[in-house]
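User: Fold this; tokens only.

Assistant: Input:
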Amino acid sequence: MVGVCLTVIGLLRVLIHMRKTDTMADDLLALDSVLFLCSSLLSYWTLRTRSTKRMHRLERIVDAVFLSAMLLMVGICGFITYAISIG
């Protein structure tokens, strides 16, 4: 998912350069890629932990971070679609 965010950032930069306009979608995608990275690192930590109580707590945190990142990505996709259709 981080790779998808970075690819879209690159494509947006090309679009912004061609249209001579700026959008905050690339900044939001950078934040989204950090959320996906945090989700994967926390997931790895969850797999490596030995405490069952800590593992269940980390699972809930990982789920929340991942779902937040996915919802943010859906919002950004809507924002990009709106920005491209107006321009």
